[in-house]
Amino acid sequence: MSESTQAWVAAGVRAVIGAHTQAQDAGRTDDIVALYTPDAVLELPGMEPLQGHDALRAAFKGWEPTQPQLHLVGNTVVASFGPDEATAASDVAFFHRGDSGWTVQVVGHYDDTFRRVDGTWLLQRRVTTFQA
C-alpha cells in the first residue's frame, strides 16, 4: 500500500475518533451512532457487548452528559491499513467538571476496528479497557 493511501486511511480513522469524542462530550447521540456500522459492537468493562444501532443509541442516550465532560483521546496508532478496513489503538482520559473544577474520572484504552462503507469510514468494533 502506498504512503499516500496509508495517510488517507489514517486521516479517515482519526477523523472518526475525533468526531466520536466531540459528539459524545456534547451529548449528540444520533451523531455518535452514525459513526458506527449497523452491526457494530461496543465492548465496555463490566457490561455485555452492545451490538447494533438500537443498542448503541439506547446506551449513549443514557450516558448523555448532565455536566461538562471531556474525553481526551491521544497516542492513536493506526496498526493496520487496507482500502476498506483498518485498526487503531488509542489512549483515553475522561474528565468531568464538578464544583471544584476538572477531575480525571478514568483512564483507558480503545482498540478500534474500522470499515469503509459507501466511501465513509465507520467504527465496526470498539473494545474499551480501563486502567487502574
From TrEMBL:
It comes from the Bacteria. Residues 13-126 form the SnoaL-like domain. Coiled coil: none annotated. This is Nuclear transport factor 2 family protein.
